[in-house]
Specification:
heterodimer, A: 256 residues, alpha/beta, Rossmann fold, seven-stranded mixed sheet, two-stranded antiparallel ribbon, B: 374 residues, globular
Chain lengths: 256, 374
């Protein structure tokens, strides 16, 4: 009897064959994989230039098998702008966390959107600074305990969570701005479709595209991986509603 | 090509265009703004890239990104803008990608003013950004010289994969002078093999300034240091005037050096054996030449438009062989030839031992001079 095997799951071509440094239960790995799968499916790997941020995903370039640069904290959209303008036929994306994008880099991200830079941004929102060990982020929920809000975020003193997708959707240069979540399989699939549309926006030259992904940080939240995913679904989604905040008409009926 | 009457900032920008700059990312700031304005019209007309960034921070990071593609890229700004750019400059240096940054210096610290100054000497020459790196710094003294050295700045940046600063002051950015522009250079089509362009048919290129293992970082620091030693050996540029039999050496760069050259000429006419050393590369500094001249002359006068920053380098190199004196104007004040001539005359008549810190003798002289001016 001849045995036959069907490949149903394998490492994307856009991935290197190394283990990531991410903590068990962290959703960075899943988000990386979704981006890699989309780049594979669209056949973009050999023309893509990624821009890594500062934060937990600072070593993203070790895991993506493609040209990559490493930006200063928050400056990835500026760096991506510099690259995209001189190489307009390449695919350029940034991968940024909430401290990077919504705090120190808020000027760079808003203006990249304002200019309608034809780049794609994957925005990981896990409501905390991961790499530095769990400090309050601009996206930290009210009352959430972090190492720099030990009594819980007091909005009277430390302000309110910033909703980036809503903000960026108001920029005329934005073509595709959506928020998805990574807390269960159904939402991961929706996240992948959104990432696909974001890259489709860029390939069609429609302007700035961003997918905000609600993500978990079990280590700094001090929860088990499953508890952390539940926290995303139960606590984060109500503050950061999932949805399509801006979709260019060209993308509305696109089947992917 | 014939000489034309050119405004400094416009001439520098056009020289960069002709040297093959493919992208300019900048932010308006006096007294360098005309550089950006010129590029905003000129580069798109040539099908090249111009972006007015939201800040100097963004501008230098756009330069950083474009530099990673191996294209010739630049920005131009002025002192407070350079402070903001120092983050990106350090990253560019750490990633070992080429870029040219022009600083049209103005009075400071803080908001200061928009008048010409050389107060950024330490910031530009000693690094300015964080970490162990060594920028090349060119200090031209006329519109023509700036035009001539902008092409060299790009060549040096490419050759050493280094950051190259051109420092001028507001005088040079704003003045109009007759000057001749070079012919337009071809833009090379070949992408450097280290550049990011999409990993088509090759292994990915990764450009980063992070070396998480301290030993890897140390190896990088050592590579940058050894490269700098090569630069020190090969790339020193300076101009001299009347040094052959000089007994009194005046040292100044940029506008201060140019004003000093008038004063030295006047001193020669008056029979004072004065000579001028004008460094064009402030980094690498013409140390060897200064050491030779320190063996020849009786006394040295350093002239700057700051509080005596290059002075410290001169003192270090001269090693007490002869007394070093200082004359500086600060805050955006440009010294007049007569002021420097009076200083040369004074120095030529001074047989004293010289102060340990030449500023100690200069401060009361300057205070007296300012009270007379007011």
């Amino acid at each position: 009897m001849v045995a036959t095997a069907e490949v149903i799951y394998q490492r994307p071509e856009s991935f290197t064959e190394v283990h990531t440094h991410y903590c068990p239960g962290c959703t960075h790995g899943v988000a990386h994989r979704l981006v890699a799968e989309v780049i594979d499916e669209m056949g973009l790997r050999e023309k893509t230039i990624g821009v890594a941020p500062v934060g937990c995903s600072v070593f993203a370039y070790r895991y993506f098998k493609m040209d990559f640069v490493e930006a200063a904290h928050g400056r990835a959209p500026a760096m991506a702008t510099g690259i995209k303008r001189v190489l307009p036929d390449r695919t350029v994306f940034t991968y940024q966390g909430d401290g990077d994008l919504a705090s120190i880099g808020i000027a760079e991200i808003m203006h990249a959107a304002g200019r309608g830079e034809n780049i794609t941004v994957i925005f990981i929102n896990n409501a905390i600074y991961g790499m530095t060990g769990g400090q309050m982020a601009p996206t930290t929920l009210e009352g959430m305990k972090t190492t720099s809000s030990p009594l819980g975020r007091d909005v009277k003193l430390a302000g309110y969570p910033i909703r980036m997708a809503e903000l960026l959707s108001n920029m005329d240069g934005s073509a595709y701005i959506v928020r998805r979540s990574m807390h269960n399989a159904a939402n991961v699939r929706k996240s992948k479709k959104a990432i696909r549309l974001a890259f489709e926006a860029q390939e069609r030259g429609l302007g700035f595209s961003l997918v905000e992904l609600l993500s978990s940080c079990p280590t700094n939240w001090k929860l088990t991986p499953q508890e952390a995913l539940d926290f995303v679904g139960e606590k984060m989604v109500p503050v950061f509603p999932l949805g399509d905040y801006k979709v260019h008409p060209t993308l509305e009926n696109l089947k992917v | 090509m014939a000489k034309e009457l050119l405004k400094g900032n416009h001439a520098f920008a056009e020289a960069a265009v002709r040297a093959g700059v493919e992208a300019f990312y900048g932010y308006p700031i006096t007294p360098s703004t005309e550089f950006l304005e010129y590029m905003s019209a000129r580069l798109p007309a040539l099908g090249r890239v111009f972006v007015q960034a939201e800040s100097e921070v963004a501008a230098i990071n756009m330069v950083y990104g474009a530099a990673c593609t191996g294209k010739r890229v630049m920005t131009a700004s002025s002192s407070p803008g350079l402070s903001l750019m120092m983050e990106g400059i350090s990253y560019i240096a750490g990633t070992e990608v080429p870029a040219v940054v022009v600083n049209v210096m103005r009075g400071g610290p803080g908001l200061g003013n928009i008048a010409p100054s050389q107060g950024d000497y330490y910031q530009m020459i000693k690094g300015g950004g964080h970490g162990d790196y060594f920028p090349i710094v060119l200090a031209p003294a006329s519109v023509q010289e700036a035009i001539d050295y902008i092409g060299l700045a790009f060549d040096l940046a490419d050759k050493y994969r280094a950051i190259v600063h051109i420092v001028v002051d507001g005088n040079m950015g704003q003045m109009m002078e007759p000057a001749e522009l070079p012919p337009m250079r071809e833009i090379p089509e070949k992408v450097p093999d280290w550049a990011v362009s999409g990993a088509k048919g090759r292994e990915p290129n990764i450009l980063t300034s992070i070396y998480i293992d301290p030993v890897d970082e140390e190896v990088t620091n050592l590579r940058l240091l050894k490269r700098w030693k090569e630069i020190e050996k090969n790339e020193v540029i300076f101009k001299e005037y009347a040094v052959e039999d000089a007994e009194y050496l005046v040292i100044g760069f940029g506008t201060a050096g140019r004003v000093a050259s008038s004063a030295v000429r006047e001193a020669r006419e008056a029979g004072i054996k004065a000579g001028l050393l004008r460094p064009i590369t402030l980094a690498p500094f013409p140390s060897q030449r200064l050491e030779e001249l320190a063996d020849q002359v009786k006394r040295i006068l350093v002239v700057e438009m700051n509080s005596g920053m290059m002075l410290d380098d001169v003192i270090r190199i001269v090693k007490g062989k002869v007394p070093v004196e200082f004359y500086g104007r600060m805050g955006g004040v440009t010294p007049l030839p007569d002021e420097i001539y009076a200083e040369i005359r004074r120095v030529s008549e001074n047989t004293g031992p010289g102060a340990e810190d030449p500023r100690d003798e200069w401060i009361p002289r300057l205070e007296k001079f300012i009270s007379g001016e007011k």
